[in-house]
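Action item from last meeting closed. Structure (318 res):
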């Protein structure tokens, strides 16, 4: 199924319909009016652990995706799982893309994957999208590269399996990628109570590739659920060098009810710096834990039922 004829037009799905599709291509300047219709992966269609595709792919600038329901059919794929099967893929130098009012259910890989490269600008995920997958998927939203990216006013429920980054993952794939002017705000992220293994954050900035990301703002999010080990994690490279990312800011978030023992409100780990201020931390062992990183501004935080407010454990600065 293709929408190539809809370039510069409006693609309208009738209400109440269900379509089984892969890689539905949406060209430049197309407004997709979903009317709540369902787009779904075929059952038993995951061929290998490296299987890479999507239900819908954005293939040009100026695209809006509005009011569709995406069903990844995660529980209907058999024994093989691939983290590379996404509901919506935005990959290419495409500017001015919006995804709003959509529902992402039974996600396999990511609900929305965003990699708009070094020259594209303005990609907005929100408002009013919902993401859920019974802890089966990789991420709710993955942000790899681009400038002026906004993820706002969405709801994430029971997203991400153990060993995967989290409901919202900011993670350049290489040191040469551009990620700047990123705003993740006013999202509700509910981890639930199912236990997992490893680090399980609500939002993560992953600096493993030492990209020179700049001006990243994680603010005014509501993060809860005892599954989470961390509300927000900012992580660099174990052993260094000090990360090239600059101006990472975590502020005015409400991180609460994630449990107490071995739970962190915000973690800064391994040779990376962040400002953490004006947040509310309610019910956890550590409010802010800086492990071999650089905690910048940390004023204005409120700590309620927190065993240790701020810990600087072997800090390292640029």
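Sequence:
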């Amino acid at each position: 199924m293709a929408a190539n004829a809809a370039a510069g037009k409006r693609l309208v799905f009738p209400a109440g319909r269900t379509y089984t599709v892969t890689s539905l291509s949406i060209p430049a300047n197309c407004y997709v009016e979903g009317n709540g219709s369902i787009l779904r992966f075929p059952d038993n269609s995951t061929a290998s652990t490296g299987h890479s595709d999507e239900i819908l792919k954005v293939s040009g600038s100026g695209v809006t995706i509005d009011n569709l329901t995406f069903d990844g059919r995660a529980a209907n794929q058999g024994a093989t799982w691939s983290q590379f099967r996404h509901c919506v893929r935005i990959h290419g130098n495409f500017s001015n893309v919006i995804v709003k009012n959509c529902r992402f259910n039974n996600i396999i890989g990511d609900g929305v994957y965003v990699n708009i490269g070094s020259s594209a600008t303005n990609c907005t995920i929100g408002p009013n999208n919902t993401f859920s997958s019974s802890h089966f998927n990789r991420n709710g939203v993955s942000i790899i590269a681009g400038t002026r990216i906004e993820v706002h006013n969405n709801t994430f429920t029971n997203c991400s399996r153990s060993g995967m980054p989290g409901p919202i993952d900011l993670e350049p794939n290489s040191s040469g990628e551009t990620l700047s002017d990123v705003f993740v705000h006013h999202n509700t992220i509910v981890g639930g109570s199912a236990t997992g293994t490893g680090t399980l954050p609500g939002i993560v900035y992953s600096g493993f590739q030492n990209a020179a990301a700049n001006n990243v703002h994680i603010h005014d999010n509501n993060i809860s659920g005892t599954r989470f080990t961390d509300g927000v994690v900012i992580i660099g490279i174990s052993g260094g060098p000090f990360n090239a990312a600059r101006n990472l800011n975590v502020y005015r978030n409400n991180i609460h009810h994630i449990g107490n023992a071995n739970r962190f409100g915000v973690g800064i780990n391994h040779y990376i710096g962040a400002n953490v201020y004006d947040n509310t931390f309610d019910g956890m062992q550590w409010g802010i834990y800086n492990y071999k990183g650089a905690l910048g501004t940390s004023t204005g935080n409120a700590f309620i039922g927190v065993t240790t407010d701020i810990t600087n454990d072997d800090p390292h600065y640029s």
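Note appended to the action item: The chain has a mean pLDDT of 94.
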